[in-house]
Amino acid sequence: MNLGPYWEDPLANNVIPSVILPLISIFSFMFYPEKSDTAVIVGIIASSVLVAASVITKVKNLQYYLNWRFGVMLLFIDSTMIFLALTISRAYGKFLPSILLLLLMLIAIVLSHKFAERFLDELHSPKTKLGKMIILIGFIGSGGGAMIGYISTQTIGAHIAAPIIFIVALIVVGFIHARFQLVAIEKKYEAFDR
């Protein structure tokens, strides 16, 4: 599983604390809009699996292996998105929204694996209007994104803002899956630096 000398990569240790993303999403799933015993049981099991993956990664120093690092990041990001979709579904009181959002997520994953090089090239040097819009969203940053999220939930409501935020977050899912496709599956290690 060792893909080369990535021991000096300062980003390698960022994999371990990134377990906080799915844990926040799971916590929301368990307690929003109200506590549900089934959601709490599912949330505790999922949280245990994710924390175990993070602990195993740290104890065995697996974060320095590129395939493992991407695999764990996929686990964390995909878990975040799945539980976010389930939280949105619980907020609506119906299961249909989560099915539609998870279907969109599946389409984003399939397209990012199928067109991985093109996707990363578009993010690196955008040529289309969509690529330029994605870069513009990236320039907003996390603070700006949090402010936009807060304002949108206060003005248009969480029922409308949450699915929109989910769809925008699919860009991150596609980005990570495209890199995983090129680096871990196709063994194009130069794509790691894109």
What does this structure look like?
The chain has helices spanning 20-31, 37-59, 66-92, 96-114, 116-124, 129-155, 158-185. It is mostly helical and 194 residues long. Helix 3 packs antiparallel against helix 4 (96-114) and helix 4 (96-114) runs parallel beside helix 7. The longest helix has 28 residues, at 158-185.
List the helices and strands and how they pair.
Layout: H1 20-31, H2 37-59, H3 66-92, H4 96-114, H5 116-124, H6 129-155, H7 158-185
Helix pairs in contact: 1-2, 1-3, 2-3, 3-4, 3-7, 4-7, 5-7, 6-7
Concise account of the structure shown:
The chain has 194 residues and is mostly helical.
- Helix fraction by DSSP (H/I, runs of at least 4): over 70%
In total, the number of strands is 0
| Apparent shape | globular
Largest sheet: none
H/E element order: HHHHHHH
How much of the sequence lies in strands comes to under 5%
Q: In terms of structural class, how would the helical and strand content be classed? A: mainly alpha
Low-confidence stretches: none
Distance separating the two termini = 21 Å
- How large is the radius of gyration? 17 Å
